[in-house]
Amino acid sequence: PVEIRPLAQAANLGLERFANAYEKEQQVIADAAHELRTPLAVLDLRLQRYRTDGQADWQAIDDELKQLSRLVGQLLLLARQEQDIERQQHATSTTRLTRLVRETVLGLIPLFEAAQRSIHVHLQEHVYVMGQESLLRDAIRNGIENALLHGKGEVVLRLYTAGEQAILDIQDQGAGVSVERWEAMFERFHKANPDSAGSGLGLSIVRRILRNAGGDACFVSMQPCTMRLYFQQ
What we know:
alpha+beta, 7 strands
């Protein structure tokens, strides 16, 4: 009957959203199990060797534990960002983006020095955007670390405004990502180089945090490699 069609449509829409959410959650669990399997197996082998011959590479074991801790932390952050409550918290928060970018870069200077790389910033002052400061900091840091770990040469950051958006360009001098792979780079566990040390979650986190705050993230240039972060003012 015509009278109950809106109810039926609403029920179908709700069931469809539930099914999609369930499917996405199952995929996250499968991906996480796959990614955790290798570091756990390596750690187990190192500890078994210590048990049998009393020799252990404690630095390697420490590195494995740090990798596991980082991976689990990224998975938890990504899972939280896919919940509606995170969008609500973003919508009621305002962050001074200029200061946040500057502080994030300062915190990463030791990593650039260790890699003998340089980073330069060009920041428009007094830029304010929507979103929680701690989460936006995670997004910016992951974006810069991606350029440091997978790019080459100097890294250049440019913060400016365009209309109702603030834009942060992160640029490096590496080989870049081919245009046909730009979108794939933001998928969970996707890596440009399968042998890289990263988890393949960093860019997924960047995009999800920014989209929850009304922004977005994408690649806009291959040479030089440029990732653009959009923030809602």
